[in-house]
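During the second year of the project, the team shifted from modelling isolated chains to modelling whole assemblies. The rationale, set out in the original proposal, was that interfaces cannot be judged from single-chain predictions alone. As a representative example for this report, we include one of the complexes processed in the last quarter. Its constituent sequences, exactly as entered into the pipeline, are reproduced here:
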Amino acid sequence: MINIPSTIKISFRALWVNKMRSTLTMLGIIIGVGAVIAMVAVGTGASRQIAEQIASMGSNLLIVMPGSTTSGGVRMGAGSQPTLSLGDSDAILKECSAVEEVAPTLGGGTQVVFGHLNWSTTVTGTTPGMLTVRDWPLASGRPFTQQDVKSATKVCLVGQTVIDNLFGSQNPMGQTIRIKNVPFTVMGVLSVKGQSTQGQDQDDVIYVPVTTSQKKLFGTQFPGMVRTIMVKARSAEDLSTAEQQITELLRQRHHISQKQDLDFTVRNLTQIMQAREQSTQVMTLLLGAIASVSLLVGGIGIMNIMLVSVTERTREIGIRMAIGAKTWDIRLQFIIEALTLSLIGGVIGIIAGVSTAMILSSISGWPTVVSPLSILLAFGFSGFIGIFFGFYPAYMASLLNPIDALRYE
Amino acid sequence: MSLIEVREISKTYHLGDIDLDVLKSVTTTIDQGEFVAVMGPSGSGKSTFMNMLGCLDQPSSGTYLLEGVDVGSLSRDDLAEIRNKKIGFVFQGFNLLSRTSAIENVELPLLYDGIHARERHERARMALKNVGLEGREDHRPNQLSGGQQQRVAIARALVNEVPIILADEPTGNLDTKTSLEIMELFVKLNLDSHITVILVTHEPDIAAYSKRIIKFIDGRIVSDESGEDKNIDRFVIN
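Output from the structure prediction step:
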């Protein structure tokens, strides 16, 4: 019968006697586990950040942009001609079954004035659909309506950055701001959205009805034209269907034959972002794999020390065998020693890894996420390393011939 | 049935190309309660013989019956159990675990016998008391004299109430006075507890404590003499 508590006690004492050696051996595991946790935390943080950006962009998002046009054999660059109209936008919503909502945009950067303060920002004309397309609720007030769009009223929704710069501590609701000298009434405040995927401040924005933008602010010689049309598909699976439907619809509406170049492009932003997210996940995996190598090296360190320990204590093993220690008594003693080293190292490594992740994010500003799974995994793995690398030395010890072990000098 | 019965056991060591016959067809029996001294010059095979008896080593040929059981047919773990329950070892170099207190050294055989901590502790304390080391329980080997260390080793050999004690030159590292004390302890154990004591020595003074002397030369038993029991007289005189 094997007496586990006593075997544990024996192992602990052996480790305690060689404090320095035990500590250095543990250091290998500490660094390994710490590196895995910190690296995975950095990677997970990066991909979570991207995931959040995707969410803030609005989910299942397509953008229809004007494409190149050809006039007299000269091919103009993409977006050189306004080719999209409000009519296109309405048609997409009406005709394409995979589309949930649309939001045409027409805007630009301009100076905005309130009282004696002014601020340069992006003013975008759009429809009430924008808030749905971009999953962007209002913080206060109410959105403008289809009626506002129809009658081109001079109302606006304002982002938080604009409010901070124009109104300070004043309540913006109902105030009148001047955009290109046209007075607009603030009827709603957009909730805070933060940085976009490209690092732009998404809250530095003013939304006005698209018709007002056309007539009063950014109108061109082409009435009814819009810059882009943002489209929200019904679901992630519907994205490519929506893309096809829109392409087909606009081809018809713009009278483009199959042979001709399209005068618009449909971009699937969500897909692009998801590709980026995937590549970040691959990076996380790579970082983790590289860090795992150090964990492996730490494990070999444990094996090394245990082998030394077995050799050094051959006589002790002989004594124990002479007075009745069985094969598994000896094996367990050394396995428990190795396991103790790796588990204590693992726990300290987890602490080290978590603090490294926190220090990294506070110094460099990288977002880090320590997932409980990675902690659990690191702990489990270090236990596995203890048993795996401890078994061989323990096995060697248990095979010793008692009389040879006793005579060992 | 004898306690120990060896029939024509031989041991050959293979050292490179040379075969070294350390034991050559040794046959003998030892009964319960005997006090046997095994003598002989170095290299005569007496220590190898002891290692065979102690199940620390296996003979190359021949049979060894311990309490009628053929030891040669047993597994490693069975042999470990026999060493644990039947045999107590006392070595010339004491072979105590350093950095481990006296009482914990004595507890070890009980530990491997799966006995609970409290009982282990109690029995180890009693064993130490029996060898005259009361109050030294928590001393480490390096805090004890040679004689005291050997007493701890004897206590460890006895603690699991074994029928046989095998002592390989138990007084080899001790001064004369201490040697005598240790020998008296063996005699006392042999008389009081009827424990079979087999000891290897090359000192006639030490061998004189025994009732029977087996002499080895060149791997063979050359003489096996049983004298009259002098120990009883000795105790009467003392």
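The first helix of chain A runs from residue 4 to 17. The first strand of chain A starts at residue 61 and ends at 66.
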